[in-house]
Design goal:
InterPro entries: Acyl_Trfase/lysoPLipase (IPR016035), NTE (IPR050301), PNPLA_dom (IPR002641). This is Patatin-like phospholipase family protein. A motif (GXGXXG) lies at residues 13-18. This protein has helices at residues 19-30, 43-52, 57-67, 86-95, 129-135, 190-207, 233-250, 252-261; strands at residues 2-3, 7-11, 37-41, 74-75, 81-84, 108-114, 119-123, 140-142, 145-147, 150-154, 172-176, 215-217, 264-265. The longest helix has 18 residues, at 190-207. Strand 2 (7-11), helix 1 and strand 3 form a beta-alpha-beta unit. The chain is globular. The N and C termini lie close together (5 Å). It has 267 residues and is of the alpha/beta class. Strands 2, 3, 6, 7, 9, 10, 11 and 12 form an 8-stranded mixed beta sheet that branches. A 3-stranded mixed beta sheet has the order 4-5-8. Helix 1 (19-30) runs antiparallel to helix 3 (57-67) and helix 7 (233-250) crosses helix 8. It is built from 8 helices and 13 strands.
C-alpha cells in the first residue's frame, strides 16, 4: 500500500539497540502509519535497509539473531582499525542481493561521515551495501570504508539521527532514538568511561535535531543493554514495540495521523 501522506522516519544508530527500531516500525504499521521515506545511521541504516527492502520487522529480528552480525567481523592487519568489514558485506549481500538503492521498495537515505573532510555524506542512490558498511563503521574498531575518493566511517560521529534527508520533502517527520543514556552510571573501568562519553556525544547531535521532528520517539531503558548484546535482540524489539503502542494510545495527535494515513492508495 502507498500512503497519501508523506511520512519520513529517521532511525538513530546504537548497536544492537537498533533492533528496537523494528519494534517501533511494527507498532506504527499496525495502526496504519507507513513511512514513504526512511533515513538512518549505523544500526538505524541497517534496520531501515532491511525494512525498505520489504522484510517484515519480525523477519529482520529473526535474521539478526540467527546470523549474529558480529560473527562476520574479521581481524584487520591495519593501524586504522581492529576489524575489517568485508565479511559483513558478504552477509548483507545474502539479504540485499541487488545491492541497489533503486531496488528498495521504500526510498532510503544512509548517513556516513567523511572522516578526512569532517563532513556528513548521505547516500540514496547507486550501490547500497558499501554505504551501509560505512554508516556502521565505528572509528578505531573498523577500518574506514572507501567509496570513490571518500574515506568514510560511522554516520553517528556527526549525525546520529539524520532528519535532514527528510526535511522539506515529508509532511511529517518521526525521529527515533535508540541510544538513550541512563541518568546515572557507575564508571567501573575505562570501557565504561569511553562508552558513556561516546553515547553522550552522539546523543547531543540527536537532541539538537529534535526540533526538526514532528514526533520524537525514545524508548526508555535501552541504556541497560550493551551495544553488542545480540542475545537481547528479542527484548529490544519488544521494548520498542510496547513503548510505541503506549505512546500512540496516549497521544491523540499521533492517533489522528494514523487515522488519516489509513486512507491509502494501491501501489
Amino acid at each position: 500500500m502507498k500512503s497519501k501522506l508523506k511520512i519520513g522516519i529517521a532511525l538513530s544508530g546504537g548497536g544492537v539497540r537498533g533492533v528496537s527500531h523494528l519494534g517501533v516500525l511494527k507498532a506504527l504499521n499496525e495502526v496504519g502509519i507507513f513511512p514513504t521515506k526512511v533515513s538512518g545511521t549505523s544500526a538505524g541504516a541497517i534496520a531501515g535497509a532491511m525494512y525498505c527492502n520489504g522484510y517484515q520487522p519480525e523477519e529482520v529480528v529473526k535474521i539478526i539473531v540467527e546470523t549474529n552480525y558480529f560473527r562476520f567481523m574479521r581481524p584487520a592487519v591495519s593501524l586504522k582499525g581492529i576489524f575489517r568489514m568485508q565479511s559483513v558485506g558478504d552477509l548483507f549481500r545474502l539479504y540485499l542481493p541487488h545491492d541497489d538503492f533503486a531496488k528498495l521498495k521504500i526510498p532510503l537515505s544512509v548517513a556516513t561521515t567523511n572522516i578526512k573532510k569532517g563532513k556528513i555524506v548521505y547516500f540514496d542512490e547507486g550501490e547500497l551495501i558499501k554505504p551501509l558498511m560505512a554508516s556502521s563503521c565505528i572509528p578505531g574498531m573498523f577500518e574506514p570504508i572507501m567509496i570513490g575518493k571518500k574515506y568514510l566511517v560511522d554516520g553517528g560521529v556527526l549525525n546520529n539521527m539524520p532528519v535532514e534527508p527528510l526535511d522539506g520533502i515529508c509532511d511529517y517527520v518521526i525521529g527515533v532514538n535508540c541510544n538513550q543514556l541512563p541518568s546515572e552510571s557507575n564508571i567501573r573501568n575505562m570501557k565504561n568511561l569511553i562508552e558513556r562519553s561516546v553515547i553522550m556525544s552522539m546523543n547531543y547531535n540527536v537532541y539538537s535535531r529534535k526540533s526538526k521532528c514532528d514526533y520524537f520517539l525514545e524508548p526508555p531503558g535501552l541504556g541497560k543493554y550493551g551495544v553488542f548484546d545480540i542475545k537481547k535482540a528479542p527484548e529490544l524489539f519488544q521494548a520498542g514495540y510496547d513503548y510505541t503502542l503506549k505512546l500512540i494510545e496516549q497521544n491523540p495527535a499521533i492517533l489522528e495521523l494514523a487515522k488519516r494515513n489509513k486512507k491509502q492508495l494501491p501501489i
